[in-house]
Write a structure and sequence with these properties.
alpha/beta, single chain, 27 strands, binds beta-D-glucopyranose, 5-stranded parallel sheet
């Protein structure tokens, strides 16, 4: 954005100024953020290049295939949880007999750093005793903080982070997540998910940054930079993994790991750009789509893996398979009769490393395939070189235990928790607030009800301490559920807690309704219990009936009901939305979420989150905001068919923001388009506004969407303060994928939309 040519400084710098009543001068928008955090990593050092060349000359086929093999922790350990321990015979088999180069995962819940150190040391010690002493790279799913390191700082899930519309916060949070992961001795992270969230049933929606490619790209590179920095060998950084390349997030059935149908132009317009942006930001690895697109399993798609990812996007890092996916080409996809054929085809399609992860079949079969010359040595060398480069970039040759000694005090540090709390607060979206019922008085007599009211697992969702995030007893005792945070604020004497319903079954809604009659208001906490991947599949987006009935019964008591939704995807609430006085949405705000929700309910924090997805009104009306115009046609040929419950980008505040003086101009009818708009805090409270710049193209030969997000910036504004903002939209910004599969920009009329204002500009 311009304030043109001015140093890039994000909105935080100006927060202070705004709070002091001065108008901020320097802010940087989403495009400036993308630019500031893109660009490749520095070239590999000459020493590392020489080392890798030498190793490749020395390595046997078996040693090379070992580098391409990734096994899970159970293959080298016995026991689970705190009782887990290395089994020396198993470890020897993996590292010495099979030269395995990569390991992953946890078994089965978050381990304290000291336990991780014991495991990582044993692995690297064993590797140091092998012929070529190549260190092993350990990978983990640090999805919303180092969720498999006991005591770690846990942030909102990615969808909640996207709701902050604050990439600087994403950058800071990801840096914390990286440092706490590396402090356990783990240098490789299987995150971020860059699949765009355009299928709300999908149980991994909460792992995405939402439905819009620009928002996903910006948050995605914030994650990559936060994880890797500009030097991933640092003891505070880890390698990022862009997953799940590509098209995984759009299963027709809504179920995880099921087929998607995505036309090539759509894939290039919507699904590829976040991956392209993160490749430009230097991401070290990519994980492949476990599902299939247009009938071709992700792990066999040579066009997408080799021609597009390597050739067009220029990705130079490691392409890792997802869990057991080469085997699944046989037993799930039925693409091959034998695992040997599947192994050959996936390696030839471009897979560098196989997350086997619980067998030695991949290693045995690939050695045979090379011996038989069905897989050429050049393909093996190419894959192994990439893997060794990643190890070098992580500093593993210099110090395979990097992070362990430096990071001891890092995990869960108070300053990191502070960032997580700020993120949780900024992630909350105020969707409705009739007659200013919120914020609540701290002296109010409240009923707190609903299955999400007293649950840390619901606040956090999956990938929390365990894969499914469902073991409440293991969560830190000092973190507040919503109920506890409200009691701390309002005093337990003023708060009656009654669950009223479980997530899927009724309990006692009458008890809640009768308590409501003698209260001032009800805080009703509904939503989803925790889930991850396939166990989270659903066939109906509607909020379960037990919860809807509870809401109806409670509303019938006649007192204001504040609905707090805690969920990982937009469960349909149209049956009750009208009866709710206020609605606050928490897209899994994480361990600090209870506190953050109470902060917003009582007005200690002014909400500033906005929806990163369209919130549907009915289970089958799943249009995204950037649908085509004729999709709005209703049964009487009017244009009212797109009526989501809440629109993408929507979110209220306790103050109001007014937009004025929108101008959009193109000198001599040529790009760029210069946009200018004023934003004023017209209320009595300080607040932060996400300014969203949408553009539509009046006519294009590939049907244009009604609008696309092209820029955003979050600005803090003191009461009465105005900020004038400028955005420069280039030709590139307004291109779309044309019939030939390449970006094109047409002349014609473009409509720029900011807030409630719109302005046409003509390009000749
Ligand atoms: C998931 C990946 C994850 C991997 C390793 C798979 O089931 O699809 O996202 O990184 O497991 O845990």
């Amino acid at each position: 954005m311009s304030v043109r040519g001015v140093t890039v400084l994000f909105a935080f710098a100006s927060l202070v100024a705004a709070q002091e009543g001065r108008t901020p001068l320097n802010v940087s928008d989403s495009a400036a953020f993308l630019q500031a955090h893109s660009g490749p990593l520095p070239a590999l050092s000459a020493d590392d290049t020489r080392r890798i060349d030498t190793l490749l000359r020395q390595m046997t086929v078996k040693e090379k295939v070992g580098q391409m093999t990734q096994l899970e922790i159970g293959m080298i350990t016995d026991g689970q949880g705190d009782a887990i321990h290395i089994d020396p015979a198993k470890l020897r088999k993996a590292i010495v007999d099979y030269d395995v180069g990569a390991l992953l995962n946890v078994k089965d819940f978050a381990l304290p750093p000291a336990k991780w150190h014991e495991i990582i040391r044993a692995i690297q010690d064993m590797a140091a005793g092998t012929r070529l002493k190549i260190p092993v790279v350990y990978g983990i799913d640090t999805i919303h903080g180092a969720n498999y390191v006991a005591g770690a700082t846990l942030f909102p899930q990615p969808l909640g982070m996207a709701a902050t519309w604050n990439p600087e916060l994403m950058l800071q949070g990801s840096a914390v997540a990286a440092a706490e992961t590396r402090a356990a001795g783990i240098p490789w992270n299987f995150s971020p998910v860059l699949d765009i969230g355009r299928m709300p049933l999908w149980p991994r929606l909460y792992e995405t940054f939402g439905e819009d490619p620009h928002l996903v790209s910006v948050m995605g590179i914030a994650a990559v930079r936060g994880y890797q920095g500009t030097d991933p060998s640092s003891a505070q950084r880890v390698a990022a993994t862009l997953k799940h390349y590509v098209g995984y997030s759009f299963p027709t059935s809504g179920h995880d790991r099921t087929p998607a149908l995505i036309p090539d132009l759509t894939l290039r317009e919507y699904f590829l750009p976040p991956f392209a942006a993160a490749v430009r930001a230097g991401a070290l690895s990519v994980m492949v789509n476990s599902g299939e697109v247009n009938g071709i399993p992700g792990h066999l798609n040579k066009t997408l893996l080799t021609d597009v990812l390597r050739g067009e996007l220029g990705f130079e890092g490691v392409i890792d398979s997802d869990w057991e996916d080469i085997k699944k080409l046989v037993n799930i996809h039925h693409a091959f009769a034998t695992e040997k054929d599947a192994t050959r085809a996936s390696v030839m399609a471009g897979i560098d490393m196989s997350m086997v992860p619980s067998a030695y079949t991949f290693s045995d079969l690939l050695v045979q395939l090379v011996d038989e010359k069905s897989v050429p040595m050049t393909r093996i060398d190419d894959a192994v070189r990439r893997i060794l480069v990643m190890k070098a970039r992580l500093g593993l040759f210099a110090d395979p235990l990097r992070g362990i000694k430096e990071g001891a005090a890092t995990v869960g540090a108070p300053a990191s928790r502070e960032i997580a709390l700020r993120a949780a607060r900024e992630s909350l979206v105020l969707l409705k607030n009739t007659n200013g019922i919120l914020p609540l008085q701290k002296s109010a007599k409240l009923v707190v009800a609903g299955p999400a009211a007293d649950s840390l697992p619901a606040l956090d969702n999956g990938w929390t301490i365990t894969w499914q995030g469902d073991q409440a007893a293991r969560y830190p005792r000092d973190r507040a559920t919503i109920r506890r945070a409200i009691e701390e604020r309002a005093g337990s004497a003023n708060v009656t807690y009654l669950p009223g319903a479980d997530f899927d079954k009724p309990l006692d809604s009458n008890a809640v309704a009768s308590a409501a009659r003698s209260a001032d208001a009800v805080v009703l906490c509904l939503g989803e219990k925790s889930y991850a991947e396939t166990p989270g599949n659903i066939d109906d987006l509607t909020l379960p009936q037990a919860q809807l009935s509870l809401a109806r019964d409670v509303a019938a008591a006649g007192k204001p009901v504040v609905l707090v939704l805690v969920e990982g995807r937009p469960r349909v609430i149209s049956a009750i939305a009208e009866q709710m006085s206020a609605i606050v949405l928490g897209l899994n705000p994480g361990l600090e979420g209870g506190t953050a929700i109470a902060d917003v309910l009582f007005g200690d924090v002014n909400p500033s989150g906005k929806l990163p997805i369209t919130y549907p009104r009915s289970p089958n009306a799943l249009l995204t905001y950037d649908h085509e115009a004729f999709e709005e046609q209703d049964t009487t040929f009017g244009l009212t068919a797109f009526k989501p419950q809440f629109e993408f980008g929507f979110g209220l505040s306790y103050t109001t923001f007014e937009y004025s003086a929108l101008t959009a101009s193109a000198a001599n009818g040529q790009f760029p388009i210069e946009v200018s708009v004023g934003v004023r805090n017209a209320g009595a409270r300080a607040g932060a506004e996400v300014v969203e710049v949408f553009v539509s193209q009046k006519a294009a030969p590939i049907t244009p969407p009604v609008k696309r997000l092209r820029r955003f910036v979050k600005i803090p504004l003191a009461p009465g303060a105005t900020q004038q903002l400028h955005f420069t939209l280039t030709k590139n910004d307004l291109s779309y994928i044309g019939a030939a599969g390449k970006p094109v920009t047409d002349p014609g009329v473009f409509t720029v939309m900011v807030g409630n204002l719109r302005q046409d500009v003509t390009i000749r």
